[in-house]
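The instructor's notes for this session suggest beginning with a concrete chain rather than abstract definitions. Hand out the sequence below and ask the class to guess, before any prediction is shown, which regions might be ordered.
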Amino acid sequence: MATTSDISRGMILKLEGSLYTVVEFGENKTARAAAKVWAKLKGLDNARSIEKTWNSGDNIYPVRVERKYYQYLFKDDTGYNFMDNETFEQVAVAETMVDAPQFLKEGAEVSVLFNTETELPMSVELPDKIVLLVTYSEPGLKGDTATRTLKPATVETGATVNVPLFVNEGELIRINTKTGDYVERVKE
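After discussion, reveal the predicted structure:
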């Protein structure tokens, strides 16, 4: 049994029958009242984001999670299909469980979080930054680089990313999967 003093960022908690991951947490202390612990939580099995407050020392119910590395294979009617790199076991997950499905490309390595109680996948996380090929982009105008002007570019997965004017079709770029932003050009 864990208490509120054990809360940490990334921990997965069971609240009212649903699973939530801790995004942010803190403690409020006042002179007269007992200390309170608050947390911003993001739903794993639902799309809700909530804030929860406990009295300091209250019991919480963390869920043990196992992280395994899988390779993305393909998408079909059952969802997104991944293969374990060691056992070659395949698992299909719904699109809502993938944190940035628009950046998934065949063969990409991702981490799948499993609930150890039920052995079911809970979420799929892409690496923080990935490298993709720009398949379409309007050419930038020469000399138009004084300001940080961005233009839309389509990458090999079909997603659209805003990139600086100097990025051209056929170049590799690094993208932050959490925000969907352009990071840098990648030399081959």
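Then share the key points. The two ends are 51 Å apart (CA to CA). The domain at 129-186 is CATH 2.40.50.140 (OB fold (Dihydrolipoamide Acetyltransferase, E2P)).
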